[in-house]
Write a structure and sequence with these properties.
The chain is of the alpha/beta class. Helix content is 44%, strand content 12%. The chain has helices at 51-64, 79-86, 102-109, 117-122, 124-127, 132-137, 161-167, 175-187, 201-215, 217-224, 234-249, 265-271, 283-291, 293-298, 334-345, 350-358, 378-389, 398-401, 404-419, 424-432, and strands at residues 40-46, 68-74, 95-98, 147-148, 153-160, 191-194, 275-281, 300-303, 318-321, 325-328, 394-396. Strand 1 (40-46), helix 1 and strand 2 (68-74) form a beta-alpha-beta unit. The chain is globular. Keywords: Signal.
Length: 434
């Protein structure tokens, strides 16, 4: 997922066994943990380009609070493993960064987190500050255990405006349009859509949208809530078959399994005009602006994923990473809990939304529209914000929504589906057998 800006769900940088951490205010590996110190809160955050915002707001909080926040920035692919090891131990943080859904489901099941539902409801200025679909996307069984703390990260269909103009075509409004575009660009010896098959989470994005458009968000909601029979829904088979048909039609070229996203291979291929489209998280825009600025400024365009004729899914629905969340350890209580809630409330403020926008992120707050002209690229910012605000649902990326014992084999099966090792029917069977 970005160095969170490359892919927040999966690409979390390396944590060494010696517990190397970087921070403005650095807490030691063996911190006092929740309740261990009466005058401080230990806060863990994923280290990336956005942590400068967290540093700033921690400093602001500490200027007026008797209970100080110690911010620990953790690089590493092992972020979630470290979190699972720490929770329930004396080294657990008081507040920590996560992706909601499956990333915290085990903690909720073990009563390790504060249920913030009533806190949000009792303070409408706080609870109503966030876009409802974003707040709800991080919930577990309808209860809120996290508060949004980063920008929105929907999956967007990016395309090369110049290539589309030269071919005399428009971005697809339907799946039939998409298949027609595949034929058009194959004939022009251009890969219709770059796909980084070496990183199979990129294939997941296609399947997520194909299922959402075919059968609606409720099918994956059933799966996420433990109904494994939902993998047998006809819409899952249809989505898997559409994915297979796209591969066989040449939508992704012949060598997509050797293309990587994390080494910038797919983005560079796209920027060089070798591919017409790229389905990727919203961070792709910042990635292109940084690494291929001429392409980003002259050729890069964006659209929503197309509808499916006869499908029951709402074409305004989204998939991706709605945002990242702060959650609070259940062992935090008394004055420290009061201080923790006050710290969370900072993230509902206009000042925080402005800081996110200045950093190139799109806030999750419901009243941020008036601030979007401050964004580095206002047109793109407005497109993203309106898309998220108007979405009837925002499905969390499946590999984050499901626990690891399901998400890991799921990704393996998706990779096999796209590589032709599993047919659509075999994929459905394999998923039902998880």
């Amino acid at each position: 997922m970005r160095s969170p800006n490359l892919r927040p769900r999966l690409r979390v940088l390396a944590v060494s066994a010696a517990c190397t951490v970087a921070a403005t205010t650095l807490a030691a590996c063996g911190s006092d943990g929740p309740g261990g110190s009466s005058d401080s809160l230990e806060v863990w955050v994923y280290q990336d380009g956005s942590t400068t915002i967290q540093e700033d707001f921690v400093e602001r909080f500490n200027e007026t609070s008797d209970i100080q926040v110690n911010l620990t920035q953790i690089p590493g692919e092992n972020y979630q493993d470290r979190m699972r090891t720490a929770m329930g131990s004396p080294n657990a943080p008081d507040i920590f960064f996560n992706w909601g859904g499956g990333s915290i489901a085990d903690f909720v099941e073990e009563d390790m987190l504060i249920d913030l539902t009533d806190t949000l409801a009792d303070d409408p200025e706080f609870g109503d500050a966030f876009i409802p679909s974003i707040l709800d996307a991080g919930a577990i069984d309808g209860r809120h255990y996290g508060v949004p703390m980063r920008g929105v990260q929907p999956v967007i269909l990016f395309y090369n405006q110049t290539l589309f103009d030269e071919a005399g075509v428009e971005p697809p409004a339907s799946l039939d349009d998409l298949f027609s575009l595949v034929d058009t660009f194959v004939e022009r010896d251009i890969t219709p859509a770059v796909l980084a098959g070496a990183d199979p989470w990129t294939e997941l994005m296609w399947l997520e949208y194909l299922l959402d458009r075919q059968g609606g968000a409720e099918i994956f909601d059933r799966i996420r809530n433990g109904d494994s029979a939902a993998w047998g829904d006809p819409a899952v088979l249809a989505a898997a078959q559409n994915a297979t048909d796209l591969v066989e039609a040449g939508a992704f070229g012949n060598n997509f399994r050797s293309v990587s996203y994390t080494t910038d291979g797919a983005s560079t291929f796209f920027a060089q005009g070798e591919a017409a489209m790229h389905l990727m998280g919203s961070w792709e825009f910042a990635n292109q602006l940084s690494n291929q600025p001429e392409f980003a400024e002259s050729d890069l365009a964006w659209a929503t994923f197309p509808a499916i004729e006869g499908g029951t899914g709402d074409p305004a629905a989204l998939v991706g990473n709605p945002t990242n969340y702060w959650s609070v350890n259940a062992n935090v209580e008394g004055d420290k809990l009061d201080a923790a809630v006050e710290f969370l409330k900072l993230h509902a403020s206009e000042d925080y939304a402005s800081a996110l926008i200045a950093n190139g992120d799109i806030p999750t707050t419901a009243d941020a529209e008036s601030l979007l002209d401050e964004a580095p690229t206002p047109e793109y910012a407005r497109f993203q914000y309106e898309m998220v605000r108007n979405a009837p649902s925002f499905t969390l990326s499946w590999d984050q929504a499901l626990p690891a014992d399901q998400s890991t084999p799921m990704i393996d099966n998706i990779e096999k589906l796209f590589s032709g090792q599993l047919s659509a029917e075999q994929f459905v069977e394999a998923m039902q057998n998880l």
